[in-house]
């Protein structure tokens, strides 16, 4: 079933309406070179063969990758996409290579792939395989390769379905073999792992000269790979996607595995036809690499794969992301000091109810506020804020713990409600709601989501979900919530016309609740029932009326009848929109009185409207008489008898004239010289018989 985003009321934004701010590159854009950004070509993407290269530089700290040290990667970024983000910390997974590369290869975080260290004791690769294994499952004719320096890349993380998996003792040998693979005409998709930057980080730290030299060497090796791609004889007929990333960073003095900013920060640099030069995004994570590579090959992100990542160009910013230009530096918090990362100003259409919120406390957390992960996760390390990996860019936060850390306060109970815009409903009886929810408990607190409806409906708010009010910081909830709500009806059986989400949180120096990517949608609006109207409620027999209708099937064949005694009025075909407009002529012989116009649909169902039929024009409004006639004998000398009633001339006499069947009408002589009269009588008899037949058939049809 199709689902469409629901529009908010006048002051509110449509969910997801905030643009990306970057236009997509032309379909025929060529990959970047190490010297300069690529330029678009007139060729279309469909004329080129998709190819992919993903290079992982182990332990590369993005903040140390200056342009002078890494000209190749800098050129790739200039000609395409740059996105930085943070990895989770403990207990979800430490910043080490096992979970880092598993996340990049599979497109899911550690709770799904189950790799939380470098021992690989309980991996879930059978359910969440690496992206090259998915390529082999879906496109077995493609040639796939994994070439790396760290052994688990080739032996464990990427599975045996990959065509070629090779491990070499140093990055020089790895690079030589990658270049050879890229020169081979059959090569389609390659993953590369370079390890020596991580070694330099362990030896001397990310602030050392040795570390910078290792980054410079790795950048040159990536340049060799890019040149090998450009020198392919078939390069102009190929559409290459090149991605460079890292599994974690390093501390200035050496080492990783913790949750500091430098250890958690990673990046995605992507260059290809899907990305406009100079694109910078704040909502892309390393989980998005796998689905983006698969999409480049024409493989959609299938729901049954259950990936945490998304195709990068399918990521839709939400209302909270529009606040990034308004973010401020810390007012009291020391951890994210200097970062532009918070505001308490709600997006257009949203509101915050702080009527029960005490005064004082940390200003950054006074009621619901909006933050980036760089800011939120660094206010105090080791309290699980680092595990908010499902949020993107700017998200909403209620944090009673951080608020209570600052005195004075006018009370101890943090109590604030975040309210969404009132989204207009389309008449569908169901509502789809989804949002990221990262909820941690550390003391008395409560949280709930309510759906509030328009006041005119008289429908009470509905409790969509409530979270535990006690526990530990071992997050009871950290996922994307999805609900299908059967909308309630009021006493009159009517559905609400608007719905708003209320996120209520209260806590006494407890923990936090982070919410993001609030999406509200409905299935297609129910089709309006078929209906029709007549241009008049009364019409004279023999005259025409106009029938107009809507809600019928496209090109549906319709028949029309006048009842009670069914008389066909014709047929017509609805247009492509299911509308109909046609002229109907009421039979001249239709009896005066109350009738029904019936539309008979293609499936046999019927619609009807009342219609009053009056006498045909020119009859003076006379009421038909009653009588019996006995025609004269064959020689015209027989005696006719008749009685007539009516407002016209006297009834027939006994003088040999036939009795008139209708008062006031001229008597028809029964002489042999007046054969037309006999023909008319015979016609009347036949017509009466036809009427009886039609009436009997009609009686068998339910009205």
TrEMBL record:
InterPro entries: Alkaline_phosphatase_core_sf, Ig-like_fold, Phosphodiest/P_Trfase. Residues 609-665 are annotated as: Disordered. It comes from the Bacteria. Residues 1-23 form the signal peptide. The chain crosses the membrane at residues 675-694. Residues 633-649 have a biased composition (Gly residues). Keywords: Membrane, Signal, Transmembrane, Transmembrane helix. This is Alkaline phosphatase family protein. It comes from Leucobacter albus. The lineage of its organism: Bacteria, Bacillati, Actinomycetota, Actinomycetes, Micrococcales.
